[in-house]
Every structure is written in structure tokens, then in C-alpha cells.
Specification:
This protein has 52 residues and is mainly α. The chain is 88% helix and 0% strand. The protein is elongated.
Amino acid sequence: MNVVNAHSLMIDSQKSCTRFFSAFSTDLRMQRRARLLLSSYQKTADRLTERS
């Protein structure tokens, strides 16, 4: 698996996690944590893409 495929796979899985927490969690802290997790994964994926 190359870096670009890994990047898109990681982002897709994190987006689905974020959608899950946003839809089913009434706990605002969990929703916020899911959004922060998504943004941290996005930054990591962007750094990996820049290196390749």
C-alpha cells in the first residue's frame, strides 16, 4: 500500500468515526474529541503526503 492510499484510507475511517459520534453521542465532549481526533489524523496524513 502506498502513502496516498494509506492517507485516503485513514481519512475515510476517521470521517466515519466522526459521523458515528456526531450522530449517536449526546455527549458533547465525545463529539468534540471525535472532531479533534479527525483533525489530528488529517495533519499527520498531510505530513506523510508531503514527505513522499
